[in-house]
Amino acid sequence: MKLKTFHLQVLCVLVWSITAFNVQAKQPSPGDVIDASNVAEFTDYLLDSSVLLIQKGQILEVTPKSELSTLMHPDYAAITQRNLGKATLLDEYGTLGLADGSPWPGGIPFPNPKSALEVMVNFQQGTFTLQGDDWGSLGGPYRPVSRIMFIDGEGKLYKDIVMAAGQINMTGRTVLEPTPSIAGYEDEILRRYLAFLEPYDVKGIVTLDIQYQDQTRLPDSYAYLPSFRRVRQVSTAQRADSVAGSELTQSDLGGFSDPIGLWTYKILAKKEMLVAVKDSVEPVAYPTVPTLYSNYFSQPRRKVELREVYLIEAVPRFDTVYSKKVFTIDAEMYRTSDFSIYDNQGNLYKAVQQDWDMAENGRPIPTWLSFFNFQTKGASILSNKGLGVNVGVPMDLFEKSSMKNFSR
Fold first, then answer.
1. Are 87 and 96 a contacting pair, CB within 8 Å?
2. Cβ atoms of residues 145 and 163 within 8 Å
3. What is the b/e burial string over 175-195, where b = at least 16 CB atoms within 10 angstroms of the residue's CB?
4. CB contact at 8 A, 145 and 387
5. Positive or negative CA dihedral for 221, 226, 231, 234?
6. Which of 77, 185, 241, 346 has its CB surrounded by the most CB atoms within 10 Å?
7. According to the 3-state scheme, what is the secondary structure of the chain?
């Protein structure tokens, strides 16, 4: 009898605890500051990985919700409206086009998505392109634009890699001629290069990524290695490998950069969550060392807004180090903010946070991309300084024959 009484008392305590926790939960409001002391009140509006980062020392500040017109270029919004109702999924894997099979001419394809796959196609078109036809350094294609900072398990910055980078859209072009596609490349979505400038042990390495319209087709990836003075094709299996020893893999750029058909998707919820759409701290140019807060975070207070998002679960169809990704996609502009990534045992593995700014020309600019490894306690922070959209990066820079020129 005493044992039954004890169990009943424990049950009552548990019920009281759950009830008390639910009473504590509240909706975030502009002006709220969220830190380790009160994060339990806001867990309904955050990913599990985001909660852990706050417990690790990150601080969030809730700001008023931004109007869509301040987050999307008016030309891009107009193109979306002009092409409304024209989008067709050409297969079950997310290959996008028009009804006659020709490439998508630009804008958000499915403003009112009816499936997780349509949400992902919107994300691919809106986020990958940055609502433009190319992106690169405002100082020229050979100038630094990106850097990866390496932080060890004790929170110490121990390495810094500097890169030139650029991307050109082969189809879905809306501003820079030729539009809507570059002749002869209609089967491609985009090409992207990374050229490593510093430090000495990686200087001269150049990578080229070619992504195709066919969403079941892995990108073609190439690397120029100055020690061999030749371009080599990179095995598709290496997309799961670390980029230069960082926490990023080839498929992690922007949080998610694989062809859509390599994963399956589920909408876990469509709900309001706290997401980042405008940051407050601009990245600094190399070799200036940025101020990091609590050793890992790029901003003293990460600015977040309460916005409606699709909470997406993505499960890979291929062999990779991840079992799934859970992430937010804004329900109006289809940009990402936060990711929880799980290992093959189903344990929380990494947190990814994508921060944004808006350029003077009204185009979204990814400023900080942060990766936190909960298992090693290390982190990698990628920042973009001086990145511009529609800068007119020459097409010939995206040919294999040009890769060696970056090493000169």
1. yes
2. yes
3. bbeeebbbeebeebbbbbbbb
4. yes
5. negative
6. 185
7. CHHHHHHHHHHHHHHHHHHHHHHHCCCCCCCCEECCCCHHHHHHHCCHHHHHHHHHCCCEEECCCCCHHHCCCHHHHHHHHHCCCCCEECCCCCCEECCCCCCCCCCCCCCCCCCHHHHHHHHHHHHHCCCCCEEEECCCCCCCCEEEEEECCCCCEEEEEEEEEEEEECCCCCCCCCCCCCCCCCCEEEEEEEEEEECCCCCCCEEEEEEECCCCCCCEEEEEECCCCEEEEECHHHHHCECCCCCCEHHHHHHCCCCHHHEEEEEEEEEEEEECCCCCCCCCCCCCCCCCECCCECCCCEEEEEEEEEEEEEEECCCCCEEEEEEEEECCCCCEEEEEEEECCCCEEEEEEEEEEECCCCCEEEEEEEEEECCCCCEEEEEECCEEECCCCCHHHHCHHHHHHHHC
Say which amino acid occupies 352.
V
Cis peptide before 180 (omega within 30 of 0): yes
**Pairing outcome for strands 322-330 and 302-316:** antiparallel
Residue with tokens 């050979």: 142
At 30, the amino acid letter reads P
- Please name the residue that has the structure tokens 């079941």: 216
Tell me the residue length of the chain.
408
Q: What is the pLDDT of residues 184-206, one digit of tens each?
A: 999 999 999 999 999 998 999 99
* pTM score: 0.90
